[in-house]
Amino acid sequence: MRVREICLGLLCLVHSAAWVAAADLPRSTPEEQGVSSVDLRAFLEAADSQVTAMNSVMIVRHGHVIAEGWWAPYRPEARHSLYSLSKSFTSTAIGIAIAEGKVKLDDPVLKYFPEDAPAEPSNNLKAMRVSDLLRMATGQQSEPERKDDLPWTKTFLAHPVPFKPGTHFLYNTSATYMLSAIIQKATGQTLLDYLQPRLFEPLGIENPTWESSPQGISTGGYGLSIRTEDIAKFGQLYLQGGNWQGRQLVPKSWVEAATARQVANGSNPDSDWDQGYGYQFWRCRNGAFRGDGAFGQYCIVLPELDAVIAITSGVRDMQQVLNLVWDKLLPAFRPLRLKPDAEAQQKLQAQLRGLMLPPAKGAAVPRVMPTKKYTFPENDRKLSALKLEGANPAEPVVLSGTIDGTDFRLVCGKGQWVDGRGIWGTLKDQPCAVSGNWVDAETFVARICFYETPFIMTMQLKFAGDEVRYKSDYNVGFRPPDTSELVGKAVAPE
Fold first, then answer.
1. In terms of pLDDT, which residue wins out, 191 or 493?
2. pLDDT (average), residues 29-34
C-alpha cells in the first residue's frame, strides 16, 4: 500500500511538472523569428547605460522567447511587484465575469454596495457604471483616499462626483479597487481566488500573490506579484485574442474592447500617456497597447509586429524606458526570418548572462575597523543600533543592528551581491541582496536590493571617533527622499 501511494505521488509530481513546463513559452533564436541579435545587443547596451535600474526584460516574437535577461541580483524565479500593471489583470477578471453572466458592463456601481451608499446619493453617483470604473471616467475630480480605519468601498462612494460619469478621465486606483470589490460581491471569491483557475493556472503562473485591503478584498489597482515570464505570458494571451493553447480564457470581444481607446486622456503626440485609455490598459504609440506600473513595470503588446515585451525596472522616468523600446528595439524586428548568425547569438547570450546592477563601489581600507556598537536616539526611521564586523580586509563586512525592535544581520558582498533578508519598514521580511565596501578610510557604503520590488536602498556610514553619521536613500519612492543624517554614539562593550 505504501509503495502504491509513493508511486501515485511521483506520478502526480511528474504530471504537475509536465503541465507547468507545457505552459511555459517556447524558446527560439532571434534570427529564426526575424529579429537581429546585433540590434538586440544594442538595445541591451543602451538599457544598461541609460536606464538607472533595469531589473529584467523578456522579448517574445511570434510566440517564442528570443531574449531574456535579469540584472543580478534580480532572478528568473523571483516574483516582482507589478504595482499598477495589476490593473490589467483586474480588467481581465471583469471580462471573464461578464462572460459568465456574473457582472454586466452597464451595471450601476451602487447595485453592489447598497450598505455602503450615502443616505442621499447624487444623480452622478447613481449614474456611475462598471464601464466608468474600467475606463477611469468615474466623474470624480480627485481620487478617494484609502484609509485603514474605514471601508474603502464606503469612502469611494462618499467621495464627490462633480462630473457626469464617462465624460472626465482621472487615473484612479480606487476605481480599480471597486472593480475588485465587485468581483468579490458577484462571485463570493477574492479577485486572486477567482482568477486562479480561470487565468493563473492555465497560463502556468505559479504562486501569484496579491495584497488585500483591511476588509480582505484584493487591492485590484496594485499589489499583484508574479514573475517576468508570467507578465510575458499575459501579454501573449492578449496578443492571441484571449486564446491560450486552444482554450479561450478571455473572450476575444473583451480583449478588443479592453485594449481599444475607450476614453481620451491627452493630446501630446510624444507621450505614451496621452494616446487614449481602454479598460485598464493604455494605448501607446506605434500601434501598441500596454499595462504598466509604478517605477517601470511594463507589459507591452505590439500586434503589428506580433511581439510582446515584458520589462521590470526601478526608474523615475517611465517614458524613458518606452522611448528606448521604440528607438532601439523596434528597428530590430524584420518581417521575415533572418539568416542565422551564430556569432552574434553567442555574444547576445553572453551579454544576457552577464547583466548585473552595479554593486557598491569602493576598495579602500578603513583607517581603524569600527567594531563597536553604535546606538541612535529615537527617530522616524526607527533605527536604534548598528554595528560593523569584519576586521580582515579579505572578508566581507557584516552589517548588523536593530530596526523597529527587530535585529538584523546582513553580509555585504565585495563587488558582488549576497542574499539576505530585509527588515526596513514596508519592506520588512522581503528577500534582498547586499553589497558593501569602504569608499574611503572613514566611509562605508552598502547597497541593499529588494529583488522582488524595484527598490534599492543605499546606506552610508561615516565614522569619526566614537561617532557615526548615517544617511540612506532609495532609488525610487512615492515620497520625497529623507536625506537627513542620523548621528549614532559608540557604546562600551557589555
1. 191
2. 98
Q: Where are the alpha helices (DSSP H) in 188-310?
A: 191-195, 201-203, 228-239, 252-258
Q: Which fold has domain 373-491?
A: Lipocalin (2.40.128)
What pLDDT is attached to residue 23?
A: 65
101-117 tens-digit pLDDT: 999 999 999 999 999 99
The single residue listed with the C-alpha cell 565596501 is: 437
Is-contact 351 429, C-beta < 8 A?
Answer: no
Classify domain 31-353 by CATH number. 3.40.710.10
Q: For the residues 28-38, what does the mean pLDDT come to?
A: 98
Q: Is 15 exposed, middle or buried (0-12, 13-18, 19+ CB in 10 A)?
A: exposed
Comma-separated ranges of CATH 2.40.128.20 domains in the chain: 373-491
Q: Where is pLDDT greater, at 277 or 365?
A: 277
Residue 12 scores a pLDDT above 70: no
Query: Average pLDDT for residues 156-177, to the nearest whole number?
Result: 97
User: 83-107 b/e with 16+ CB inside 10 Å = b?
Assistant: bbbbbbbbbbbbbbbbbeebbeeee
Report the alpha-carbon distance of residue 430 to residue 129 in Å, rounded: 38
Q: What is the pTM of this model?
A: 0.93
Give residue 494's pLDDT band: very low, low, confident or very high (50, 70, 90). low
- DSSP assignment string, 286-324: TT-EEEEETTTEEEEEEGGGTEEEEEEE--S-HHHHHHH
The shares of helix, strand and coil residues in the chain, as percent rounded to the nearest 5, are: 30, 25, 45
Q: How many CA atoms are closer than 13 Å to the CA of 383, on its beta-carbon side?
A: 22
Cα distances (angstroms) measured from residue 4 to each of 9, 10, 140, 190, 337: 9, 10, 62, 37, 50
Q: Residues spanned by CATH 3.40.710.10 within the chain?
A: 31-353
Cα-atom radius of gyration of the chain, to the nearest Å?
25
Distances (CA, A) of 449 to 235, 247, 293, 445: 27, 39, 19, 13
Task: Please choose, from the candidates 74, 92, 10, the residue with its C-alpha nearest in 3D space to the C-alpha of residue 299.
Answer: 92
CA–CA distance, 135 with 261 (Å, rounded to integer): 9
Distance CA 106, CA 134 (A): 11
